[in-house]
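User: Can you write out an input/output pair for a complex, sequences first and structure second?

Assistant: Here is one pair. Inputs:
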Amino acid sequence: MNGFEGLMHGFSIALEPHNLLWCFVGVTIGNLVGVLPGMGVLSAVSILLPLTFGMKPVAAILMLSGIFYGAQYGGAICSILLNLPCHPPHAVTCLDGFPLTKQGKGGVALGITMMGSAFGAAFGILQMIFFAPYIAKVAFSFGAPEICSLMLLGLLAGSTLAKGSPLKGVAMTILGLMLGLVGTDINTGVERFTFGMIDLSDGVALVALSLGLFGIAEFLKSVNNTAPVNMAYANVRMKDMRPSKAEMKEAAFPILRGTIIGSLCSCIPGTGPTIASFVAYAAEKKISKHPEKFGHGAIAGVAAPETSTHSSVQGDFIPTMSLGIPGDAVMALLLGALIIHGITPGPRLIIEHPDIFWGLIASFWVGNLILIILNVPLIGLWVKMLMVPYKFLFPSALFFICIGVFADKNSLYDVGVTLFFGIFGYLLLMLKFEPAPILLGFVLGPRFEENFRRALIISRGDMNTFVDRWISATFLSFCVILVGGQLFVRLRKKWAAASYVVGAITLALVAYLNMYVFGLCLIVIAVQFALSLRAKKPLATSEAQPARVAGE
Amino acid sequence: MSITRRGVLAIPAACLGAPGLVRGALAQTGYPDRPIHVSIGFSAGSGADILSRYFAHKLEELSKQPVIMENKPGATGNIAVRYVARSEPDGYNILFVANSNMAGSRYLFKEVPFDSLNDFKPVASFAQIAFVLTVSPNSPINSIPELVAKLKAKKDNIAGYTNQTAQLSTELFKQLTGAPARAVGYKTAADAMKDITDGTLDFMVLDGTFAAGQVRQGQLKALAVTTAKRSPSFPDTPTLQEAGVAGFEFAPWWCVYVPVKTPQPIIDKLEGWMHEIARMPETPKFLESVGSIVNDDTPAEADARLRAELPKWEALVKAAGIEPQ
């Protein structure tokens, strides 16, 4: 069965009334889950999993997958309108989405998101139809050294994620890296910074951290703003959602780039939508001609990460379905659901169970269509959320945050962690520190460390492993270009040439001395640190004003 | 009327005991009359979770009450065990747990917030999971003696593991065969798939739940299972004992536990249901699909199993050089 025939076969299955109904149920639940703060896809799928025991396998898998991608549509809504990242992948969307809402362009942001989502998802599905076997192969060329170098690149590119003082941004990235250290070290079993609490032995929960830093901190900040209703932003009509031609133009390339980054991320095992959206945002900011606009309502800052999330979510199904290797926890759950129904995902799934494989793909089209039909009219309704007086909106959102965090691991301790980071995040906001880079460090740091050490164990302690393998070497050279480029731009004046040469020689020396990658990291971080110290002065004037706006 | 010292001492004891008795008596009438909560220490979708959900689902049919799975992952499952140890002993909070927590935790951690021998009563041991020693499908090695010979010749070998049972199985294998290997940890079996397939890892002991499908699809080569008997999920794979590693038996088994003060009639009722599930014709079939076998133990057998396991874990943790945390 080739791609086209398979797809037709798939549609005949996905459009069976029974399957169509469950697909609809799945995406609708997903969409709702996405909109509710804190209620994660993982908990929704695990709650509904037992329900599917009695269903036919095709219907079960269509519904459970529907929840997964459906939730991504809802996830952006709270990020953009309320600055509340309901799911970690949408945390970066807050950075520009919420400023857009403040400028009265919340509807446009949602409209762009919808378009980007549909595009990203469509690309992801096409990729699954035509390139699944090849992508599965790419996934298999990513070992520990490759992932390690990629994470380093992500950290470097993302350390400028924050608006405002770069020094503060780097400091927050490092804080995130440090928070990522908490928990049991995978290679030695040593518990780090758990203070004897077994609840911390698996580290700080990502959901608790992100909802604390963004959700609760934001509430604490705006509680003092006494305006009872957020009327200023809520005035959005259907037609406001339609982006202008200029805005479309602004969004087009970010959408394209976001799609590519998302699909690349989905190829790499263990790199889910969260990393995809962070990387897409960071990359977009690096590429943009107006990086200063980011954080103050850049359309690209919404379009790129959202598109990337969706294309990565669809792509996530590829390793799961074609290799039986789940890319993240939700995929592991879907794999579990298939096993319960007696189906083993793997290379032979397409041949042994074409109904499942093609039915699922066809249902992606159907499901995404349903989601668009559902969401476009609903955006008007979501925006109305902003008109709910704070005194109702805040307590109910806090309530959902608590439920969501609790449901993630059935742990009351995590609710406490959320509260702690809420207060901590509030203090940071007061001191004009941006919390976004914390999340970046927290997500990428542990994966960097884990793979760095694993790579070294596997190479028997030989640092060459990072440069001997071409994928890893490519990522590392991107790192060097990134830092070198910054050096060049920032230090163009007097001693620029001299320091650039020194920097280049140091890097070359490091490369020559068997590339002590860790040394390179330290140098790079030191250089960034020095740069941000220097950059503080000339940038102060341009940064001070928007910072005041954000803090008003 | 004589007041004996023993009698006086009995009074507070009786007072303390009475509420328990009353509660016990109340609980016995019509147990179960509300949902039963099953706690497990692994996240939803994990192999352990899939296995547990099957039994929870069957328990629901037999008890005629909803059975709610509570996934409390964290601290290698100890959080779930602690939760049930501290919960009301009324039969509505039960624990599905593996030997790594009940037998292993006391040696792996400095402070364990429960005492597996004194805080719990076993109800029934219900399943045993085969772990499999796997190598790359492209590897020229086809048997354990071949592997041991190669490991001994090459010296700087690397073996992957994802959890303590796998780590200690690797350790036991090294001990019994004298083959050198350095262990490297992975968070999930999926993370390790690339390294095992392309031969980066010389061998890896994997959870049968995950490996069953991979082996069947030819993505992994299974050399031996860690159980004492062959596993129906891997019918053509010998046990390590058969393959010449005498004395090798190390595999996780799953057991139902309740808090120690749970009234006996409730335990009996639960035990009856567990045996009934074990005897259902579809049970072995399901377990086979997740790399496991039925383990229809009585409470006494389960208890003996746990006690027999303790010295084994103690010795292996020491041998593996694991510092208790």
